[in-house]
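1st attempt posting a full record on here, be nice pls
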Amino acid sequence: MQAYTGNGAYCYANALHMCLLATGNTGLPDPGFLECLTTMPFGISYTKSAEHVEIYFNAPKIDPVSGLERALDASGWSYTKWTGTKETTAQSAFTHLQKAVKSAPVLVGPLDMSLLAYDPVAAQKRGADHFVVVLAIDDNYVRLHDPQGYPYALLPLATFLEAWRAEEIDYVDVPYTFFTNFQPHHPRSRAEAITHVLPAIKGNILDKPDDADSYAGAEALHLLASDIQQARYPGLAEQLTFFVLPLAARRTLDSAFFWQEAGFSTLATLSQRKAELVGEAQYHIVHASWDRGANLLRRIAEVESQLSDSF
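the predicted structure (as tokens):
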């Protein structure tokens, strides 16, 4: 396997890595390993209605906020999580964040990417979630590190608070979440951290959605293949090629190294093969080769079944 480093869509894992680095501790896990500790790379979910579809290469009942908690707990780090309520005002959230950032960089999110106005194509990302590291804040602006390629980004405070309310993000029940006060309370070795998350990973892979319009695992991929082949949903190919497949390839490759380190050679080999197939599907779907793209998705489904059976 050949490792990959780059700017992939690992916003929360990269943001967490930056915050841990800011503590001055050494020997920290890399973002790819942290991503696996969140358990987000394991599982597949597909939700579809008559008009709309969403595909994710992660389990149906995990979200990035829960994933961050899993990664921190697995690593043995303590932290403070602050979350507003439905009644929390923007001014109250601002006051808490301003106090926290005086001590150390703060991991903030989810944010609505369409409101991050330093991004020239932000308006095209409505409802997409994002996580950043807030470095400084005053009465007018927020300065932050955005893992999507914008260090020391500047955003007007009012715009930031609107993005932080995250009204368009489907898994957000309450607004204004941040993580701070990271401390190595009882640090675990990499091997210990892997062992800690294995039950959650197994749950992700075997989990089934509660929603009647949602599907998981190989079944989700077979349905996706059929929908791609028949061009049933406008925008599905763009959803796949601009975000879902590149992220899936990165996640699956990192999971292959994770399984290799854990001593599960069969799972590592299957994950590497899955990553290769996802990368191949990216090309054919970009070029509207629907039959080839659908065939590759079905081959990925076969590998996903093998992963599930081998765990």
